[in-house]
Amino acid sequence: xxxxxxxxxKTGDGHADGAAAPKSKKKLIIIIAAALVLVGGGAGFFxxxxxxxxxxxxxxxxxxxxxxxxxxxxxxxxxIVNLSETTNFLKVKLLxxxxxxxxxxxxxxxxxxxxxxxxxxxSKGGEGLPGALGQRQPMIQDAVIRVLSAKKAADVLTVEGxxxxxxxxxxxxxxxxxxxxxxxxxxxxxxFIVQ
Length: 195
Prior knowledge:
The protein is α+β, with helices and mostly antiparallel strands. It is 65% helix and 15% strand.
């Protein structure tokens, strides 16, 4: 029998090739099935994670749009200051963007002292800050003047310099407001003249 087995394996008829063919087909089917499961699972993962990312992005945009909808703005009167170390001067008109909810929280305490309504009558042409910020407007104007007059002409002429000034102004106004929670979120230049 050993001669017959050797001959069958050499010639190729018999069970040696017949058994190998089903095993390789089974392996091929298993490999293809596993690949499909992996590809399908991976595609599902990417689709679900893409949907999650899109949902998170939409929530972030909604949060930003809600913040923007709740912000209010007020104009400050023009400021004319001498710049540091030069004979140049700077004329600036500012628009202050603030959170009215923060202002309302602080406004109840500030209005109890009186003076909130009277200040609004003093502001010219719609200029001035409302509520608790309006009551602190002289201190806020002083802070703005201090920040601006400390600048050199070279500081205020570049775009980067202007952005730095805006950041410093927001910080100075919030500090001058005397509130625990900062009400001012941004400052915008409506006029900016260096002479």
